[in-house]
Amino acid sequence: MDKASFFSPQAGRRIEMPRRTQARFGIGDIVRHRLFDFRGVVFDIDPVFANSDEWYESIPKEVRPNREQPFYHLFAENGESSYIAYVSQQNLTEDGDSGPIDHPSVTDLFEEFAEGRYRMRRSMTH
């Protein structure tokens, strides 16, 4: 299989990946974690796992996801706080019907919430 690579600041190294990957969610989509009670808006996507090995190893083996799938950076929230989450595709479901996200950083990147998703600010697009 043809490979490509990119540098990941979180991992501190180059990450190899297939030339083609299929992300189920896009920037601005609202998602919910399948196992844990939080939801968020996607603000970045890694085509494969691109965080540190220490971070990956800290996930309990029984729920540790496969590295060879898209991973999503989320402005996340639960009933108690707002934070940034890094979640595998296999652990996310669509959740736009539940309304907008109340994360303080959402307005930095996104404009209005409409039809179950956010639209990126024009100043942030090419």
Overview of the structural elements:
The protein is mainly β and 126 residues long. A hairpin with a 4-residue loop joins β5 and β6. The chain has a 5-stranded antiparallel β-sheet, with no helix packed on it. It has 2 helices and 9 strands; from the N terminus they run ββββαβββαββ. It is globular, with a radius of gyration of 15 Å.
What's the overall geometry? globular
Order of helices and strands: EEEEHEEEHEE
Rg of Cα set? 15 Å
Oligomer: single chain
Low-confidence stretches: none
| Percent range of helical residues | under 10%
Proportion of residues in extended strands: 35-45%
Tally of DSSP helical segments: 2
The structure class reads: mainly beta
- Placed side by side, the strands forming the largest sheet appear as 6-5-4-3-7
Q: Tell me, rounded to a whole number, the average pLDDT.
A: 91
Task: Let me know the number of strands.
Answer: 9
The largest sheet, given as strand count, sense and whether it forms a barrel, is: 5 strands, antiparallel
Q: What is the first-to-last residue Cα distance?
A: 30 Å
